[in-house]
Amino acid sequence: MRSEALWIVGGRIANAILLLLALRMMTTLLPPDAYGLLALLTAFQAFAGLILLNPSGQYLNRHTHQWHAEGSLDSRIKAYARYWLWVSVLTGVLAAVWFAQSQAGSGLSLAYCTGLAVAAAIYLFTLQGMDVSRLNMLGYRRESVTWQLTATASGLAFSSALSFFWPSALAWLAGQAVGAGLAHLGAWRVLRRAGKSEAEAKRYRARELLLQADFLRFALPLALVTSLLWLEGNGYRLILERAWSLSLLGLFALALSVPAQMTALLESIVTQLVYPYFFKALSGEASAPHHARIVSSMVNVLLPLYVLWGAFLLLSAPHVLRLLTDSRYHEAAQWVFVGVAAEIARLIGNAWQLVAQAEKNFAPTVLPFAVGAVGVLAGAGLSAMFAWQPGQFGHVLLAALYLKMALNVAAMRGRMPIHVSLRRLLPALAVLAVAVTASFMLPTRFDPVPALVYLLAVSAIVAVPVAIHLRTSPDVRFLFSHRLREGV
Fold it and tell me: From CA 290, how far away is CA 35, in angstroms rounded?
């Protein structure tokens, strides 16, 4: 178990380094207006991923172990893949239509190419993500890490090469799609060799699976929630695209994306190392007390971890932005706090939303997400009307996100009796309070070498309470007591 954990953590750290290197390459090769356009194109990618594809992916994760044991997993995934293809094509068409009439539109041929790149990126990233997730869920952890690293590294290589000769958002997105496609092919071959032969020859139809009552109960509320999440996280970009310049929009998007990309490291480790045990535990006894015990354990593992991560982000994210971006983007550092605070709210809300995963019922989360989306879009509308600057819009954004988080926690507590260990949470909150105070006292910028030393020191300091929490937590031991593969 320890060697497996080290492999996963090491692989995820390597993946995070590649993502940060990608940020450096993007801000070096692409001008701010191209970065702003890329942020808008990825909004379409997120639209398909969050609203139309994520519910089916979550449903597959929830039932991976059950269907693998039945021998029907491959047949079901092939049916879902046909649905994913249609979604990708339709979203690509929407992106092409939008691009043709946007600030950046400069001809139908470029609009067609943009739509094709968006569609390819959506489809190939979905396939690659599902393959990596299956490997991880079924206990092939090293292979999962390897092919995720392959996707990131090859995507960076192809995107950098294309953008070097043609510095544009389209070139970067096309390179990412190629990298995802290569990793999908490699992971698919591993799954073919390691997969369980299917005893049944039944061929599932996408419509048959998508219209099942259990899937609809799970997916429709989740799709509504993720549509609100998309409006909250990406809708403002489309509203402000004409009110702000593409360059200003790109700078603000960067300020939010740096903490988000840093957090992706933590979430990827948690997803790969802990979540398979969570879903495996849920696939056992179906009683409500058993599910409450499992979700309580996950919440008590994740909440202190996420709070400590928030402390790390507060102290490090502005310096990471300046260290890893071209000087043309350093102005964005003034808004990084907005991104850090937004990530803290999102992580805490995600931890509580495990209640909805356990119950396979996301309906109670609709109202909190609706409040968050309406608040963010209203703030974007006011920003466009009154020519607010990004900092002013950021305050409205955070108010909406924290109200959503509070409503979401209240809704989840009403659904399941979750026991939160204050003995573990309060020390993490104390570390966060110290970090908030220190963020006002420490220098706002360093030269590159002192900045690197500072980041290493902050990482080492925050790692101490994280290690203590994980090594002494009985909830970690409880979750890891479930075996992913028999005999392993």
Answer: 47
- Of 428, 370, 379, 414, give the one whose Cα is nearest residue 399: 379
DSSP string, 402-425: HHHHHHHHHHHHHHS-PPP-HHHH
315 contacts: CB under 8 Å, gap ≥ 6: 435, 438, 439, 442, 458, 462
The full DSSP string for 173-192 is: HHHHHHHHHHHHHHHHHHHH
Q: What is the mean pLDDT of each run of 10 residues along the chain (488 residues)?
A: 70 83 89 87 85 76 73 77 89 89 68 91 91 81 86 95 92 95 90 60 65 74 81 85 84 92 86 79 72 87 94 94 87 92 93 84 86 93 89 94 94 86 92 93 83 92 92 84 59
**Helix axes 54-70 and 108-137, enclosed angle (nearest 10):** 40
pTM: 0.77
Torsions phi, psi for 307 (to 5 deg): -65, -45
- In contact, 204 and 152? CB cutoff 8 Å: no
Q: Report how far residue 352's alpha carbon sits from residue 184's, in angstroms, rounded to the nearest whole number.
A: 32
Q: Which two tokens stand for residue 239?
A: 């509203």
Query: Whose CA is closest to 354, among 119, 62, 36, 49?
Result: 62
C-beta of residue 307 within 8 angstroms of C-beta of residue 426: no
User: For residues 129 and 127, what is the distance between their CA atoms, to the nearest angstrom?
Assistant: 5
Query: What helix, strand, coil percent values describe the chain, rounded to 5?
Result: 85, 0, 15
Cβ–Cβ under 8 Å, residues 356 and 58: no
pLDDT per residue as tens digits for the range 58-94: 787 777 777 777 777 777 888 788 888 998 999 999 9
398-440 pLDDT, tens per residue?
A: 999 999 999 999 998 888 888 888 988 999 999 999 999 998 8
CA distances from 411 to 94, 298, 348 (A): 35, 18, 14
